[in-house]
Amino acid sequence: MNKVMVVTDSTANIPLELLNGNPIASIPLQVIWGNEVLRDGIDIKPTQFYERLAVDKVMPSTSQVTPEEFKSLYSRLIDEGYDILSVHISGKLSSTLDSAVQAKKYFPDERIQLVDSLSTSMAMGFQVLSAARMAASGATLAECKAVSEKSRQNTGLYFVVSTLEFLHRGGRIGGAQAFMGTMLNLKPLLEMRDGRIEAVERVRTFSKATDRLLDLVEARLAKETGPVRLCALHANAPDEGNQLLEKAVKRFPTSLVSDAVLSTISVVLGTHTGPGALGLAYMYSM
User: Quick one: 99 and 219 in the same domain?
Assistant: First the structure.
C-alpha cells in the first residue's frame, strides 16, 4: 500500500505548528502586480504585501495554479511513492481545481483523487489536516478522501471586512453584492456557504460585527458534543486576531476545544479581503 500525500494550495493558511509532522504539500497561487508574477507566500510574504499595498498606485490581481505546476508536483510525488489527495480552494472562487483536473489526466491509474473544499482559508485547512492526520496513521487514499469529504460538511468560515471594494474589484463578491452602495459605516458580515461568499448581515461597527460573528459560530456549534477546532484569521491585524481567538475560546467549554490557533490570511486572499479583515474558521466532530 502506498503512502498518501495531501496536496493543497496556499490559500489554506495552515499555521506552521499544525503543518509540522503531517504529510501536506502546498502549491502557491499567484499575485500579479504590474509586470511581476509573485508566488503566494514564497516570492512575497503577507507583511511585505500589506506594506506595498498601502503605497503602491497599482492594485494587484490574482491567478490560479497552472496545470503544468500541478503536473510537475504530482509527477514528483508519484515518483517518491505517494498516492495523492488534492484538496483545493472552492471551484466557485478559483480555477485552481480545474487546473488540477487537467493535470490529473496525465496520470490515469487512479493514484490521484481530487476534492473541492467548497471553501478556503482554514475552513479548507481543517479539511486538509483531517485527511493528512489519517494519512500519517497509514490510511489508504480512499479512506483519506472519505475523511476529507466528511469534514467538509463540518467546517465553516465567517469573516468581516472593512470594505467590500477589494472583493468587488476581484470579482469574488458573490451574494455580498447586495451590500454594495450601503452606508459606509455599516460593516459587512460574510460567510463561506456552498463554495461562495455570501452576505449574512450588516452591522454598524467593526467591533460589533466581530461580536456578531462569534454569536453565529456559537449558535452553529451549540448542539455539538465532539471536539471543536477554531482558527482566528487576520489580514495584517495580529492583535485583533488574537483578541478574536481569545473571545472565541471563551464561548466553549475548555474540554470541547481541541485546537485554537491564529493564522495570517495569505497574500492571495488578502488581495480580495483587503487589510484589516478578521475571520473565524471552525470544524466540529472530527
Answer: no
